[in-house]
Amino acid sequence: MVTTDDILKRYGAKIEREKRGYDREEAGRRSQVAGGKKKFSKSYEKFRSSMLPEFSRYERWCKSMGNIFTIKVGEKDKMRIDRAIEIAHLNVTASEVVVFATMLLFGTLFGGIAFFIAIWLLTESFSMIFLFLIFVFSIFLFFYASKTPERLAVKWRLKASSQMVPAILYIVIYMKHTSNFEKAVAFASEHLSAPLSLDFKKIFWDVEVGKFSTIKDSVDNYLLGWKDYSMEFVEAFHLIESSLYEPDEERRVVTLEKSLQVILDGVYDKMLKYTHEAKAPLTNVYMLGIVLPTLALAILPLASTMLGGAIKWYHVLLIFNVMIPFMVMYMTGNVMMRRPGGYGESSLLESNPLYPKFKSNAGYWKGVMYGLPFFLIGLIPFLWRYTSVPDWLGTTRDYAWSEIGLGFLGNGGVFGILTNSAGKLVGPFGSGALLMSLGVPLSVAIVFIVAFRTKTEELLVTRDKYKGVEKEFTSSLFQLGNRIGDGAPAEIAFAKVASSVKGTATEGFFRVVNENIGQLGMSLERALFDPKRGAVVFYPSQLVSTSMRILIESVKKGLKVAARSLMAISEYVKNIKKINDRLNDLLADIISDMKSNMVFLAPLLSGIIVGLSGMITTILGSLSEMFAGGDMAGVGGGVEGILAIFDITKMIPTYWLQIVIGIYLIQVVFILTQTLVTIKAGRDPLQEMAETGKNLKKSMIMYVIVASGSIIGLTIIGAVALAGLT
Fold first, then answer.
1. I need a labelling partner for 399 at 20 to 30 A (CA). Which of 137, 213, 345, 661 fits?
2. What is the distance between the alpha carbons of residues 416 and 653, in angstroms, rounded to a whole number?
3. What one-character DSSP code corresponds to residue 400?
4. How many other C-beta atoms lie within 10 A of the C-beta of residue 443?
5. Nearest Cα residue to 671 out of 345, 282, 307
6. What is the mean pLDDT of residues 24-48?
7. HSE (CB half, 13 Å, CA atoms) of 247?
């Protein structure tokens, strides 16, 4: 009989050699750290680099500014910023964030003052309004930059929260056949997509580096970050943990199923509450960010001349194209920050074969080619007013309406380029220049419309295809589970289901799997997940991917286990579909109201305002010319006194006013579309880009038609009224 001493003698020398080798390696690692040669292992650096790369630029800015000096942050603000930094996985400190915001404040302030002084020295015009706007904008940028970690944290949570329910599903399905919490979390971390997969991997990393002694402790610490944001996610995890202590198998499975139901019910209840709370803030955004600014633009031409020309077109540009869009983004950001987690689109966009086309910039060049002719048309009044092009071409700077056969519109100029009392050119004020200026915002919109359509058109077709698959996937999974439950291997079960689902949306998916196995000789896992030929690559749906990953894992445990897993997924799909349909119904009112405001009311109001501004300017200009020419000698002097107050040469040119309105409308479409898509589906770049292109197309068509009609119609009405007066 072999004794303990025999075993020790046989393996003692080998163990001793391995121990000495380990001691040498450990001593080497310690000496490297002590000598400052290597603070982090290569594996940690690789793990860190797998975090979100789009934040690296912001991190570099904060690091570079933070090296200049440090700022002691208040305890309350430090806790808030540190919490956001931890959630967003940023490699910065609270002091560096505040230093960057402070440097941005002073940089904008001093840069604006330097620009103001340069304009003052060149033009000898002193504008306190411009100086005040620079000051206000600098302060706003400070607060906006100091809140950047919180916005990035919200962005992280929105994307991660859309993967919560699949994460719980992965763990529950795995633990139904293998009651091992560590392996279940590892399985979820391997098969979820970023960013939630990175969080799960960090749970294991914290254990490996000795921060926590067990996976359970590391998970509990991680869940503290979701306690105030998604309590149902925390409760579901705790139920999963409690299932480990259930002595009875049936009660263990019931506890696991209860955890999945808890997160589904929690998501539904929170979204139900959110739909009621979000309507009023979004209405305020529309009124304060769109309606009131647009109405304010209607009185700006008159206000500028009453203030003696103190308000310039570049003041309006700074307010309406920089400051107000930032304010609208801040207001909509607050609405999005209150969005609950656990619900949203989480499709595998990056794994789609067409993803390089989505990232390509070729569509922008195509859009530039389409938009360039309209931009050149919109640039004509600018060239005739600010450059020497008319002299080079041997033409006048402006043309009277009578010279082009439209004398009934009055004696004014087509472009409305005038000379003020100081002998300087002002304008353009004319209806012709105003009509041509529509080409500038139209050309900008065309660039984005064409580019976004080029980027997303084919991807949307693919998404619609797999959305159709998802609708019918419940019954297909049920059939697949039945075939496997009858004892058929998974490869044969796919062939049987493929023949029985002909004519449905799922036929293509099962046919690809069957062809990969039968014709190309692939294994089941390769037939599903091969990078070039796998069926999941052509149907990049989170639901399809989740189901097939669980199938691959459960088949290893036996056919019965695989059949039960597929049945559980089928039931889950049915439940989540009911919740999605109900939530879409709840969100329909908010989304339809805001969309109609964005693509109909906002461009309609903006177009009418542009026409009214053009008519007011045209009437005042024509009346001034009539008094100057003696055509209205019989009219009382009161009118002449009023016209002296409203000096057209001191007004904001309607040419620039329309460009500001048009660009602002484009900005509003971008901001509100992002908000509505985020409210409905969480972080979804594909849908966001596609919806922006569609809404931009509708808004600009409406705006150009209404603005053109208003300019032409109101100009004719004003000309007829003036003709009757004379």
1. 661
2. 9
3. B
4. 22
5. 282
6. 45
7. 0
Burial of residue 591 (number of CB atoms within 10 Å: 0-12, 13-18, 19+)? middle
Classify the phi-psi angles of 614: left when phi > 0, otherwise alpha if psi is within -120 to 50, otherwise beta: alpha
* Nearest of 330, 314, 322 to residue 293 by alpha carbon: 322
User: From the DSSP assignment, how many helices (H) and strands (E) are in the chain?
Assistant: 31, 2
pLDDT of 706 over the 90 cut: yes
Could you give the CA distance from residue 726 to residue 724 in angstroms, rounded to a whole number? 6
**Residue 536 contacts residue 529 (beta carbons within 8 Å):** yes
Q: How many other CB atoms sit within 10 Å of the CB of residue 507?
A: 18
The amino acid occupying position 254 is V
CB 265 within 8 A of CB 232: yes
Cα 116–Cα 119–Cα 122 angle in degrees, nearest 5: 150
C-alpha distance from residue 658 to each of 439, 652, 701, 711 (Å)? 10, 10, 15, 11
Sign of CA dihedral 46, 92, 227, 276: negative
* Site of tokens 């956001």: 84
> To which residue do tokens 């989170």 refer?
542
* Tokens representing residue 270 in the block: 């929170």
Cα(199)–Cα(341) distance, integer angstroms: 15
Residue 441 pLDDT class (50, 70, 90 cuts): very high
Tokens (6 digits) for 465: 């295809």
Read off the tokens for 429.
Answer: 């004020």
| Dihedral sign from CA coordinates of 363, 369, 370, 374 | positive
Residue 341's pLDDT band, with cuts at 50, 70 and 90, is low
CA-nearest of 413, 431, 409 to 720 is 409
**Which residues, in sequence order, are bridge partners of residue 400?**
413
Kindly tell me the burial class for residue 191, based on how many C-beta atoms sit within 10 Å of its own C-beta (0-12, 13-18, 19 or more). Answer: buried
Q: Cα 330 to chain center, whole Å?
A: 13
Among 657, 656, 667, 652, smallest CA distance to 602 is for 667
The chain-wide mean pLDDT, for the chain, equals: 78
**Secondary structure class of 10 (helix, strand, coil):** helix
Write down the residue that tokens 């589904």 correspond to: 264
The span from the CA of 653 to the CA of 433, in Å, is 10
Which helix (H) or strand (E) segment holds residue 426: the answer is strand 425-426
User: Could you say which DSSP state residue 413 is in?
Assistant: B
- Tokens 């939530």, located at residue: 583
**Alpha-carbon distances of 698 from 329, 596, 665, rounded to whole Å:** 22, 10, 12
Cα separation, 432 vs 400, in Å, equals 10
The tokens for 312 are 């310039």
Q: Using alpha carbons, list the distances in angstroms from residue 551 to 261, 477, 555.
A: 21, 10, 6
Question: Could you check whether the bond before residue 531 is cis, i.e. omega within 30 degrees of 0?
Answer: no
* Tens-place pLDDT, residues 187-238: 888 777 777 888 888 888 888 878 888 888 898 888 888 887 788 889 999 9
- Both tokens assigned to 156: 């992280």
Query: Are the CB atoms for 215 and 240 separated by under 8 Å?
Result: no
Q: Identify which of 265, 264, 245, 268 has the alpha carbon closest to the alpha carbon of residue 255.
A: 245
Amino acid present at 674: Q
The separation between CA 257 and the C-alpha centre of its own chain, rounded to angstroms, equals: 34
Beta carbons within 8 Å of 73's beta carbon, 6+ residues apart = 81, 94, 95, 98
The pLDDT of residue 50 is above 90: no
**Contact at 8 Å (CB) between 455 and 689?**
yes
**pLDDT band (50, 70, 90) for residue 282:** confident
The mean-pLDDT minimum among 396-405, 583-592, 625-634 falls in: 625-634
Buried-state track 237-260, b at ≥16 Cβ within 10 A, e below 16:
bebbbebeeeeeeeebbebbbbbb
Q: Which residue has the tokens 């985020």?
A: 678
**CA 551/CA 544 separation, integer angstroms:** 11
